[in-house]
Each structure stands twice: as structure tokens, then as C-alpha cells.
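Worked example

This section walks through a single chain of length 215. The input is the sequence exactly as stored; nothing has been trimmed or padded.
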Amino acid sequence: MVENEATPCQTDRPKGPTSPRERRHEAILDAAEALFMDQGYDRTSLAEIVRRSGGSLATLYELFGNKQGLLHAIAVRWRDETMQGRVNQVEAPDASAVDILMGFVRREIGLWQSPRTVALLRMLVSEGLRDRDFALQTYRDLHLPFIAEVSALFSEWAATGKAAIDDPEAAAHLFLSTISGDMMLNRLFGVEDGMLDEAQIRWRLQPFFSHFRIA
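Given that input, the structure is written out below as C-alpha cells.
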């Protein structure tokens, strides 16, 4: 069970008219996520989700396939709301490459402090351990798009002389591993005093900045 938070669909999702099918899709996702967070993925039945969201079990199967499909759809929605476009959010016109990356670090720290993030990733890990295909799909759909985004940024910097990065994809993996590894493990295991702050992460990144001539 997670602490009460504002539901992202109420705060972060772009507003605007949607079709009845899209509204039904979102209503089912909202109900499923709320129940998964409140009583656990394994203890939540599809019948409960339908009762909370309205509609029918047939519609749920049509849109998501099964409960695992629902969990995956919730994860993809979370990715779209919180992660895509987070790397190259320039906070000032004259921001340096280091400023851009440290801005991302601040957003990443905030993300890992979210009970929703931790609860969702615990469910994904648990289900992934039971089903390798689900684990691979989760990796492809949540992690690899983020690697691609960072790689594209590093490729741009290499092409314009802002950094000396010979393998942008490998550098992206290294960057994300450096900043996320400890935070992910500590939060997933509930080790609150093991969380790194921005200064500690900056210290860890100094060899990365130096090696790739990022300034």
C-alpha cells in the first residue's frame, strides 16, 4: 500500500476532449492503478476493477488482454507522464551540458522519492520474475526508450563538439547506471538513509564528465 498522492491522471495528463473509447481506456487504467496500489497487484481481481471503473469485463479484455496487460499499460502511462523528455529540459538558454545533466539528476531524485514510482516498480519486478516475456517487454518499453533519448542527446553533443563521446549508447547506459543504480535499489528495498543527494551524485559523475569532456 502506498501513501496518498495526487493521481497523475488528474494532474499531469494533458487536458482535452477524448473519445468514449479513450475515456473508457483511462477509467479502467485509473481504477486498476488505484486498486493495485491500495491492495496489491496479486490481490486485485479484474471483477473489482470493472466494478470501480464501470463498463464490462469484455471491454477490459478487448482493451488490455488480461491483468498483466493492464499492469503494462499502467507502466507505459507512468513512463510517458514522468520520464520521456526529462533529459534535455533546458532550464536556462545558456545552460551548459553539465547543467542539463544535473537538472535531470534533480528530476530523477524527485522521481525516486515518489511512493507511486516505488510501488509500481516493485510490482513490475515481481511480475517480471514470474514471466520472462513480461520482463523483456517491460525492459524494452520502459528502459530502452530512455536510453535512446539520452543516446540522441549525447550524439548531438558529440557532433557539435560539446563532448567527446565515441559511443553515445554505451555512455547513456553508463550515465543512467551511475545515477540510478543506488537510488533504485535503496528505494525498492526501503533503505531510506541510503538515498544519494545531488552533491553525492555530482561527485560520482565527475570522472564521467572528465572522460567525455562534458562541461
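What to look for: The radius of gyration is 19 Å.
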